[in-house]
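tokens incoming
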């Protein structure tokens, strides 16, 4: 099977688009670069569509690699016939391939293998022919030192037949279809763990059953976590009698002694070999689907969080709130550099309100603070109320920032490298301030699964999770673009074509030689060759440089084209930028070439209208209800302001300004059917919610989205 036909069979993209995309990928082009600057070659495929081709390409390559391994093993066993080789080469998926290989796979010592060594395979073949009678007499001929009597001979022959049945792909596929359509997942509590305090969160699954094909991702992952922690037992069941009857009809042709022996072998094969293997396979498939669904939710959440509204380059005072240990305070300049840090104690038990207010007022004036960022953890509401009562702060915008993952950052190598002389509390407060200025630039420093916007992120395939989330981060970074003269190595490492090592080289070059004045200067960075420059240049920005195009997403390979367009309009390039009237008069068809088609030309004109435009919204200040401080203050029917802080398949969680987030179940998001929660709400969205139910004992809050 060829790669292009494999991808074509599973997508609706044209063969030319697939072929060109694969060629670009083979040339080490990245998804962001291909999607943004090679639209003519791909047929205008977007990042998601190119990502699908990447996944299918990797799946095909894994399949081909496995085929080669199997062919080599079959050759070594000297069993590779032309027919068998043809079957292997034409297998379209791993399941089919493994079924083909199963009879030849090296096994640990089995009952069938023992029976073969005892010379019972000819007897098994006689039984399978279903033409013999008087099997006791025939079996007596196979009695030897290892086979005591006729019954042992027949038993051994049945073990061989059971293995043959297990290795038949048609029988395996029959059971697979039954499992796929009709299997049930059943759970039972481990009696000795029933009253365990930690088991109570899984109480719903102490006695549960559900069709495996219809179980939601979050429920399956919860069940598997409960099983892993030893609180419940899980098994997959189907109607055994119906399946056995179908197998009988396939295999038993005569109602004689042979048929009776085959019936026994079928029962043995089904219970001992087929069912354990295929129920495990079915559970693995269900787990993979659940993982995929959970990772998709995480990807959507992460993308929304990374593309959260930045406040921009402002002088920020940030607070990491606390009670006993006080509030850590830092002052940052427009570039997020640390100017000052201290601690104040306005909350219990110290209650040094006057002293703390004086400190804040002094810092606001001394460092010309333009905005205040407060972490949303312990003592957040109390600290917010304290800040709002300070005279100098009343003229400033005050933001409560989600601090999930800040502690992870503060103890990381990245944080230690940035602030080697500061302790973790200072680093955490800096992160809270920088998140307000530019969420993307700060959050890329944290392992995505530690940011707190996932669903069972520690239970899914960790390699797949990391790969998927890294792709999301890369797409977000390149969508926004990066100021090459201020970006951290962490941020630069996600730029198309850069990576961690080149990112370090860029920062080192910047530290040694000063800022980059043009995009071409980037070529001077050690080990940054032509390919890396081609892939990265369009996503790197030079602010206030000598060439205005360097602060846009127009790729350097298009600079001559832009210059020619400006020349035809009798303008300088810089006079064309932002000149909507002249840009609308450009007859794009006049500039279409083999290299630059209409999609690229339209992108260039759009970028020239508003060069370097940040696609993100601007940050908006927000206030919680001052009357709600703890869960005890909530009452059914209350309408409150809140911020969406997590989205799952079953609803979204909303921060209403207390320790516990409330759940808006999917059924309470809209009066009509909701097929995609992200169409209704987005992460960090400011919403109005109604309190439906408060369970103080279980710390659970049910909410409804207000229109």
């Amino acid at each position: 099977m060829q790669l292009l036909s494999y991808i074509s069979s599973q997508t609706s993209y044209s063969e030319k688009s697939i072929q060109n995309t694969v060629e670009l990928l083979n040339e080490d082009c990245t998804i962001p670069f291909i999607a943004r600057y090679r639209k003519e070659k791909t047929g205008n495929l977007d990042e998601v569509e190119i990502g699908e081709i990447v996944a299918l390409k990797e799946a095909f390559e894994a399949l081909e690699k496995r085929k080669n391994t199997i062919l080599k093993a079959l050759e070594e066993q000297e069993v590779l016939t032309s027919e068998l080789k043809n079957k292997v080469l034409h297998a379209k998926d791993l399941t089919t391939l493994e079924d083909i290989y199963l009879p030849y796979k090296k096994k640990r010592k089995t009952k069938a293998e023992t029976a073969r060594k005892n010379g019972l395979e000819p007897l098994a073949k006689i039984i399978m022919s279903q033409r013999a009678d008087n099997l006791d007499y025939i079996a007596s001929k196979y009695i030897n030192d290892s086979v005591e009597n006729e019954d042992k001979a027949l038993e051994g022959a049945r073990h061989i037949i059971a293995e043959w049945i297990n290795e038949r792909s048609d029988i395996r596929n029959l059971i697979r279809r039954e499992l796929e359509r009709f299997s049930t997942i059943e759970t039972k509590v481990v009696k000795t763990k029933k009253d365990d305090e930690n088991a109570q969160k899984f109480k719903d699954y102490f006695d549960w059953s559900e069709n495996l094909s219809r179980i939601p991702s979050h429920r399956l992952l919860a069940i598997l976590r409960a099983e892993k922690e030893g609180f419940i037992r899980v098994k997959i069941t189907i109607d055994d009698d119906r399946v056995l009857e179908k197998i009988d009809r396939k295999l038993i042709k005569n109602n004689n002694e042979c048929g009776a022996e085959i019936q026994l072998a079928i029962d043995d094969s089904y219970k001992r070999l087929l069912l354990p293997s295929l129920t495990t396979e079915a559970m693995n498939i269900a787990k993979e689907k659940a993982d995929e669904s959970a990772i998709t939710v995480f990807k959507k959440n992460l993308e929304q969080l990374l593309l959260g509204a930045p406040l921009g380059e402002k002088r920020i005072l940030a607070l990491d709130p606390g009670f006993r240990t006080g509030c850590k305070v830092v002052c940052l300049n427009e570039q997020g550099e640390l100017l000052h840090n201290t601690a104040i104690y306005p909350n219990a038990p110290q209650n040094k309100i006057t002293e703390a207010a004086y400190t804040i007022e002094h810092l606001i004036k001394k460092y010309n603070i333009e905005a205040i960022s407060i972490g949303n953890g312990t003592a957040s509401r109390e600290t917010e109320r304290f800040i709002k009562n300070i005279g100098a702060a009343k003229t400033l915008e005050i933001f409560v920032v989600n601090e999930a993952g800040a502690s992870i950052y503060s103890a990381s190598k990245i944080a230690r490298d940035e602030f080697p002389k500061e302790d973790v509390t200072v680093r955490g407060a800096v992160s809270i301030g920088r998140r307000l200025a530019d969420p993307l630039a700060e959050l890329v420093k944290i392992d995505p699964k530690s940011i707190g916007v996932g669903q069972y992120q520690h239970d899914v395939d960790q390699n797949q999770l990391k790969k998927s989330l890294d792709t999301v981060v890369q797409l977000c970074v390149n969508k926004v673009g990066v100021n090459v003269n201020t970006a951290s190595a962490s941020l630069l490492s996600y730029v198309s074509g850069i990576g961690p090592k080149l990112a370090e080289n860029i920062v080192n070059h910047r530290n040694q030689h000063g800022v980059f004045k043009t995009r071409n200067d980037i070529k001077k960075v050690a080990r940054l060759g032509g390919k890396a420059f081609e892939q990265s240049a369009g996503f790197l920005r030079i602010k206030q440089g000598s060439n205005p195009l360097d602060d846009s997403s127009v790729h350097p390979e298009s600079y001559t084209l832009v210059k020619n367009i400006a020349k035809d309009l009798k303008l300088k390039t810089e006079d064309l930028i932002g000149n909507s009237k002249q840009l609308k008069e450009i007859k794009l068809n006049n500039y279409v070439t083999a290299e630059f088609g209409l999609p690229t030309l339209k992108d260039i004109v759009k970028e020239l209208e508003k060069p370097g435009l940040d696609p993100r919204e601007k940050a908006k200040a927000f206030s919680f209800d001052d009357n709600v401080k703890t869960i005890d203050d909530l009452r059914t029917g209350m309408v409150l302001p809140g911020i969406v802080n997590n989205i799952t398949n079953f609803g979204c969680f909303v921060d209403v300004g207390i320790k516990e987030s409330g759940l808006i179940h999917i059924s309470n998001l809209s009066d009509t059917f909701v097929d995609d929660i992200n169409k209704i709400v987005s992460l960090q969205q400011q919403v109005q919610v109604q309190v439906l139910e408060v369970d103080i004992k279980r710390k659970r809050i049910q909410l409804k989205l207000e229109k």
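note: Residues 257-306 form the longest helix (50 residues).
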